[in-house]
Amino acid sequence: MALPRAWLDSPFALLHGEDSEGRLAALEAWKAVHVDPEWEVFALTVCAEGCPWAEVHNALSEGAPMGSDRVVIVPQADNLLEKAKELPPAIKQILAKPLPGTRLLLVARGTLSAGPGKILGAKPFNEWAQQGRVLKVGALEGQEAADFVEALAAARGLRLEMGVASRIAGRLGGNPGILTRTVEVLDLLAEDRKVGLDLVDKATFRLGEQGGFAWSKAWQSGQAAQALATLRIALEDDASSAPLMLLGQARREVERLCRLADARRKGLKGGGELAAALGLSPKQAFLLDGYTRVLDRIGTEGALRLLHLVNQTDVDLKGLAVSRSMAPMLNLTLALTRAWSR
């Protein structure tokens, strides 16, 4: 992933988004620019996950070896960035005017919003965004994903035919990691450096021939048999990466349910406000009715149970559980079908 030079060079920067691979790569790249390996033990402080602002403030206030900067990394700053109005005055002052000889990287595992009252919509982070000091590595939406594919292909010297980037994005979604690996596969297959629609069809599994997202469309329609059939096809064609790609689709839908529940708890009622809370663009606002219907039926507790199941399935697929069978994906598929069934 090509990282913006302005972000890499920023002594105070923010990194956010759901792409865990992208976050790690970006964090290491920023660290390589700002941390002197010879003084890392003495100059670098990595704050505890979920720490309060007081810990960050204390870390920035510590001295560093002569000739080096105090570098502070907050690897999970989501709790610090929930509400812009809750930033302590002392922190606001430091973020706006950093202490001499200090460097700070805030990392949020979720995608932050720039809406009214949200962290990226308030000072100093809205100014950071304008200055290129904010980097998003989460799922890309619509044209963003197609543009990302175009940029990756150009960097590898690939020439994409018209419509190729859009088909890849529409078929595989907006996960930057998946899109990157897809372009890497196309790079190996395209001997003449040209990528046409036929090559894309060969490089991606058969779910794409059914219009993309066939699995999620099936369980969102309450069609358990069809959902299980498309799951089987995906696993047959790409048993290593297909489950994680499908899980990413499920996580996006379930997290939107949870965001809707949270928005209701906060008293948001207007369609525009609720759509923004879910991360939906104006063109996607029509999807809100579907999420509302599902949440009304299963309730907040049901949405949280689904999120827990997604997380458990993720753990199992990554080999951290005892069993590595595909039973978790089967169970998740049936649970999603029951939740979305009319």
Tally of helical runs: 16
The percentage of residues in β strands lies in 5-15%
Strand order of the largest sheet: 2-3-4-1-5
How many β-strands, per DSSP? 7
**Uncertain segments:** 206-212
CATH architecture label of the largest domain: 3-Layer(aba) Sandwich
* Rounded average pLDDT: 83
Q: What is the fourth-level CATH superfamily of the largest domain?
A: P-loop containing nucleotide triphosphate hydrolases
Largest sheet data: 5 strands, parallel
Could you explain how this protein is built, in words?
The protein has a 5-stranded parallel beta sheet with strand order 2-3-4-1-5, with helices on both faces. Strand 3, helix 5 (89-96) and strand 4 (102-108) form a beta-alpha-beta unit. The two termini are 41 Å apart. By secondary structure, it is an alpha/beta fold. The protein contains 16 helices and 7 strands. The protein folds into 3 domains: 5-136, Rossmann fold (3-Layer(aba) Sandwich); 139-204, Helicase, Ruva Protein, domain 3, CATH 1.10.8.60; 242-340, no CATH class. Helix 11 (214-220) packs antiparallel against helix 12. Helices cover 54% and strands 8% of the residues. The radius of gyration is 22 Å and the shape is globular.
Helix and strand layout, with pairings?
Layout (H helix, E strand, L loop, with lengths): L4 H4 L3 E5 L3 H15 L5 H4 E3 L6 H9 L8 E5 L14 H8 L5 E7 L16 H6 L3 E3 L6 H13 L3 E2 L3 H9 L3 H14 L4 E2 L1 H7 L10 H7 L3 H14 L4 H24 L5 H7 L10 H30 L9 H14 L2
Parallel strand pairs: 1-4, 1-5, 2-3, 3-4, 6-7
